[in-house]
Amino acid sequence: MPPFATRRQRVLEAIDGVAIVAAAPVTIRNNDVEHDYRQDSDLYYLTGFDEPEAVLILTTVHDEHRSVLFVRPRDPEREVWDGARAGVDGAKERCGVDAAFEIRELGKMLPKYLEGANNLYYELGHSAGLDKRILGAINRVRGRGRNRKAWPASIVHPDQLWHEMRLVKDEHELQAMRVAADITAEAHTKAMAAAKPGMNEFEVEAIFREVFRRRGAERAAYGPIVGSGPNATVLHYRANRREMADGDLLLIDAGCEYDYYACDVTRTFPVSGTFTEPQRRIYEVVLAAQEAAIEASGPGATVEGIHEVTKRKLVEGMVELGLLEGEVDTLIEEETFKRYYMHRTSHWLGMDVHDVGGYFVDGEPRKLAPGMVLTIEPGIYISADDEKAPEAFRGIGVRIEDDILITDGGRENLTAAIPKTVDEVEAACRA
Predict the structure, then answer these.
(1) Whole-angstrom Cα distance, residue 1 to residue 8?
(2) Which of 430, 427, 302 is nearest to 358 (CA)?
(3) Could you confirm whether 253 is annotated as catalytic?
(4) Do 154 and 175 share a domain, yes or no?
(5) 113 shares its domain with 217
(6) pTM score, two decimals?
(7) Is residue 100 located within the same domain as residue 139?
(8) 355 catalytically annotated
(9) Catalytic residue chosen out of the listed positions 51, 257, 355, 401
(10) Do 58 and 12 touch, CB atoms closer than 8 A?
């Protein structure tokens, strides 16, 4: 059974008042052409509803309704152009809410649902239009003279509610993430086999997009990064339009989104099928750091601790390679390593690629717990014009990234099926 009603009930048990969650807006790409629509993660998490112009209200103070969804009405004329809508009746049946109304009724009915609530749980700044409606409704409730009922005197950000819920994945979520990982694994493996000197980066990107859609993924979880040669040293390179050359490394950071859950993977491999000696040396330093970081993950570990393990392994490797000189502890303390490793090691993963959930609790690093999913993605990036680096290493960029589920017994690498060791990668490139 879909878990949406259970999630709403968990929110209702955690709040005292009214929670409001809005759909993502439709955005215009150019003229009258819209960007592909993707529902707001919070609204989808609580309803499974994927249409725009929707608002969910959860309330502990209304006598009859605990969950209410406002949606677009059925409109045969628009549905000819844009497809069927659920409408009021369809939304109520599909989402299992207590009541549903047309979205145009929201302004009129908001005071009714806000009246009697001490707290409003809502993300201000998400929608200026809805902010205005809600604040106006609060003012109307507050201004009703001798009304004995309370009005929301406190607006609480959802970080401590459904964002905390989203941090720990249930079995429904993990199943979607495993499918996303499996689809992404096929795409990365196919790319290793297909990439050749003379191909363009966008041809490799097309392999990913074809596999994603053929396997039923709704979309790429983010814009694929397909950077060859010097482009591999650009962290968020997105142009994907360089012709690959013999001797290039190709860094691909790409994952699909399946049933609203993201996969996020990076692999780096030689376009010609075999690492050069300098490439292999850099690659093995990054791989050793990643393996140490994965081993350091598990219940009770922290993202901060994993990053510390990663930094130390990378700095030790950088000294061995001649990229840095000095004592490891000093280089870490002075952050000299940021010349070649300038980002963090991990982020939460889930419905969003950089998923919600705090990294600190009461000022201390959050301890990992079963059900949390995070990336582990060390890298070394040496600019082609870096005169301080040994010449053989200039222009080499390597990142290796996997998606790690924290389990009761330790960890599960959701993306372990994707070739990663030097031998595995070279074999996949020759396949």
Answers:
(1) 14
(2) 302
(3) yes
(4) no
(5) no
(6) 0.95
(7) yes
(8) no
(9) 401
(10) yes
- Token code pair at residue 169: 């994945």
**378 in Cβ contact with 251 (< 8 Å):** no
Which residue, 354, 361, 357, is CA-closest to 377? 354
Annotated catalytic, 399? yes
Domain stops at, among 122, 142, 164 = 164
Residues, the chain: 431
**288 plus 386 within the same structural domain:** yes
- Tell me: the pLDDT tens digits for 206-254? 999 999 999 999 999 999 999 999 999 999 999 999 999 999 999 999 9
Catalytic residue, chosen from 85, 94, 178, 347, is 347
Residue type, 313: K
Helix (H) or strand (E) holding 258: strand 256-258
Same domain, 59 and 84: yes
Domain around 198: 168-430
Among 329, 174, 381, 380, smallest CA distance to 258 is for: 174
Domain count, the chain: 2
The CATH number of the domain where 303 resides is what?
3.90.230.10
N-terminal to C-terminal alpha carbon distance within the chain: 41
158 and 186 co-located in one domain: no
Is 354 annotated as catalytic?
yes
Whether residue 67 contacts residue 57, with contact meaning beta carbons closer than 8 Å, is answered with yes
Residue from 258, 260, 261, 381 carrying the catalytic annotation: 381
Per the annotation, the verdict on 35 as an active-site residue is no
The residues that bridge with 205 in the sheet, in sequence order, are none
The H or E element containing residue 235 is: none
- Strand ranges of the sheet holding 261-262, from the earlier edge strand across to the other edge: 219-220, 256-258, 261-262
Same domain for 360 and 325 = yes
Residue 97, both tokens: 């809410």
> Which listed residue (264, 352, 355, 402) is catalytic?
264
Nearest Cα to 274, choosing from 398, 422, 431?
Answer: 422
Which residues, other chains included, contact 346 with Cβ-Cβ below 8 Å and sequence gap of 6+? 293, 303, 306, 307, 374, 375, 376, 377
Q: Which residue out of 178, 399, 402, 403 is catalytically annotated?
A: 399
Q: Identify the CA nearest to 84 among candidates 57, 50, 54.
A: 50
- Is 236 tagged catalytic? yes
**Tens digit of pLDDT for each residue in 259-297?**
999 999 999 999 999 999 999 999 999 999 999 999 999
Residue where a domain stops, chosen among 118, 135, 164 = 164
